[in-house]
Amino acid sequence: MKTGFIGLGAMGYSMARNLHKAGLLAAVWNRSPEKAQAFQAETGVSAAASIAELARDCDCVVMCVSADEDVLAVADALGHSLGEGALVIDCSTVSAETAKTAAARLAERGIGFLDCPVSGGTEGAKNATLAIMCGASAQDFERAQPVLQAMGKRIVLMGAAGSGQATKAVNQIAVAGVNQAVAEALAFARAHGLDLDKVIEVVGGGAAASWHLTNRGPNMAKMEFPLGFKVSLHEKDLKICREMAASLGVQLPIVEMTLLHYRRLIEQGHSDEDISSLYRLKRAMFDNPKG
Predict the structure, then answer these.
(1) C-alpha atoms less than 13 angstroms from C-alpha of 275 in its C-beta half-sphere
(2) Is 168 considered catalytic here?
(3) In the chain, what are the domains?
(4) Backbone φ and ψ of 5, nearest 5°
(5) Which position among 35, 100, 168, 230 bears the catalytic label?
(6) pLDDT one-digit tens code per residue, 84-133
């Protein structure tokens, strides 16, 4: 299956590289052409001048872009350029309704669509160990297996179009809660004069163990926040979660609190840091208590 890739960001670049390693990648395209040209220089894979040019050489296209309007614009462009029977795999994080809309538009042209948001951060993208939650027909899911398996390790069909994005919203809410808890707990530990590395070691072996504590905690202890998942992108995702909850008449406290905290981080210039930089606010809370 000749595959194209659209969107060479922090996640997409590594995902495309893994498709290349698997011998599946025919071409790449990025809105900023410099990234596509750099990818071509590194791998020899063609950097297409347009989406239409990329699509002409492909049976399947994977996209990993930033926003709902980008997904629909790319899907529309692919719909006019891919042949009948082709597949579009969207690894972006957008609303379930956007996924359903994209699927319907492409179905009119005989093109299969899978909403396949991913989780696992830049490490998972690099190591091809991403968790991939999929919304698609069983037939399209089966056809897409070689492509999905080149990028991820845990790949699950959740239901029809939109189900992948709904599952990703579940993931993003849980990530917000874990980030809040770990940042607050480590700030509490520091305020009591504890050795944070020892705290992470012992607590990480008990009921409070989590991927976030083990993989982000040591950097938080050093006040270092190397990028795994940007604050600004998680904020965008949580706004989607907020809208989905609101459609059910519900407000989610963890989502609302985290959005408030991310807004403060962004205002302080930390939008491009990893979400573990939430520790900045938690530590400051103990350093400057309000009597």
Answers:
(1) 28
(2) yes
(3) 3-161 (3.40.50.720), 167-287 (1.10.1040.10)
(4) -135, 130
(5) 168
(6) 999 999 999 999 999 999 999 999 999 999 999 999 989 999 999 999 99
